[in-house]
Design brief:
The chain is mainly α. The chain is built from ten helices and no strands. 4-amino-5-hydroxymethyl-2-methylpyrimidine binds next to helix 4, helix 7 and helix 10.
Length: 225
């Protein structure tokens, strides 16, 4: 008998919302890195803004960890999320080093509107009443958009400028891909048991992440609007 792999909710949602998903994971900003035409001032803008974002992302990830420790029915969830949280420490150091290299002052970055919106959304997800299934869906989506996006810049035929390879490897590499797949398994398992109401909330949250990611790329590419 051929074993039938039951496809999870995430696969179904990605197919259902493929236009928006592709909009976030193959954005013109990423494609311009991939084809080597990127304007370095855009990269620098992204760098300064993403540093601010990642600092907000730390307490958000910690709040997901807290919910995992209370609600997850599999104790390995905590370990997966903890590894993600731990790697943010190194990520913040990387941003500081990279910013110094590119002469991007991190102390006086003006937070752009799209970034503010995204950070406010993260804050709203940190409320204790938000279900674990919903917030872990957001965590998966946020990480996966970066993973898929930057992995395009590492494909064989890509012309990514060598100066940007390190950034692309940070999110686009196989190790980070493995982490995203672990998160996806957690989400699929949580959603199998979720109520109809929770499922709708998780799907809406997934879509909101995709929109906010697109706006973040737009901002990086075009500047403040
Ligand atoms: C805007 C944004 N989305 C996702 C990630 C991945 O951590 C990031 N660093 N920044």
């Amino acid at each position: 008998m051929v074993p039938v792999k039951k496809s999870g909710m995430i696969d179904r949602w990605v197919k259902k919302h493929l236009v928006l998903y592709t909009g976030a994971t193959s954005h013109p900003f990423i494609l311009s890195i991939r084809d080597g035409t990127i304007d370095f001032s855009s990269f620098k803008r992204w760098l300064g803004q993403d540093y601010i974002f990642v600092r907000e992302f730390v307490p958000f990830t910690a709040s997901v960890l807290l919910k995992a420790s209370k609600n997850a029915d599999d104790s390995s969830d905590m370990e997966v999320i903890l590894s993600g949280l731990a790697s943010l420490s190194d990520e913040i150091s990387w941003f500081k080093q990279e910013a110094a290299k590119w002469d991007v002052p991190l102390s006086d970055v003006i937070v752009h509107k799209s970034n503010q919106n995204y950070c406010r959304f993260l804050e709203s997800l940190m409320l204790p009443e938000l279900e674990y299934s919903v917030v872990v869906t957001a965590l998966w989506a946020i990480e996966t958009v970066y993973q898929e996006s930057f992995s395009h810049c590492l494909e064989d035929d890509s012309k990514t400028p060598p100066e940007l390879l390190e950034a692309c490897k940070r999110w686009g590499s196989e190790g980070f891909g493995e982490f995203c797949r672990s998160l996806q398994n957690i989400v699929n398992r949580c959603l199998e048991k979720a109520s109809e109401e929770e499922l709708i909330k998780a799907e809406v949250t997934f879509l909101r992440v995709l929109e906010l990611e697109i706006e973040f790329w737009n901002m990086s590419q075009e500047g403040a609007k």
